[in-house]
Amino acid sequence: MEFRRVRPNVRRKSCKASAAALVLLAWATLTGAGNAQQILVQSGLGAPVKLTAAEIAALPHQKISVENHGKTVRFAGVALRLVLEKAGVALGSSLRGKRLSSCLLVEAADGYRVVFALPELDPGFTDRVVLLADKADGRPLNGKEGPFRIIVPGDKIMARWVRQVTTLKVVQVE
User: Fold this and answer.
1) Across-strand partners of 52?
2) Which of 1, 11, 20, 94 could bridge to 90 as Cys pair (CB 3.0-4.6 Å)?
3) Are 50 and 40 in contact, with CB atoms under 8 Å apart?
4) pLDDT of 23-46, one tens digit each?
5) CATH 3.40.50.1460 fits domain 36-172
């Protein structure tokens, strides 16, 4: 009489299913599909503020056409300063003295980070609008770029065009 072990095959199938589930979970995390489509804003004063995609969508949007890798793309989004103000970060007349050395650290889901001086975002200092985009060519940003992306018109190199923005931190440079 010959016995065959069935259990190893069951284990292989469950291991394959577990591995597939882990790959899907990692993909969802890396593409932003696993997050709740929100941005965490840390102003250094008090508790961090979470802004949902719905709260950001309710802010006044504007459109901007830019060259992106040789092709014209029409991004839509919110001026980054409006997002900061919604979270309680004071700009405008409060940007004097020591506050002029405050920076905004923008963090992405993959750990990429860039810095803006707060005056770069304030209309009292510049006419340039840094955009927190949520759409490109009329469609929501895909998982590789969104749900939110920083667009900096006028920058010669797109190094500060952050994809998959997750966190905005106001930092005081000492």
Assistant:
1) 38
2) 94
3) yes
4) 333 444 444 444 458 999 998 777
5) no
Where in the chain are the domains? 36-172
Task: Decide if 165 contacts 106 (C-beta within 8 A).
Answer: yes
DSSP the chain: ------HHHHHHHHHHHHHHHHHHHHHHHHHTTTS-SEEEEE-SSSS-EEEEHHHHHTSPPEEEEEEETTEEEEEEEEEHHHHHHHTT---GGG--GGGGGEEEEEEETTS-EEEEEGGGG-TTT-S---EEEEEETTEEPPTTT-S-EEE-TT-SSGGG--SSEEEEEEEE--
User: What are 13's two structure tokens?
Assistant: 């199938």
Q: What is the identity of the amino acid at 144?
A: K
Which H, E and C letters describe 90-134, residue by residue?
CCHHHCCHHHHHEEEEEEECCCCEEEEEHHHHCCCCCCCCCEEEE
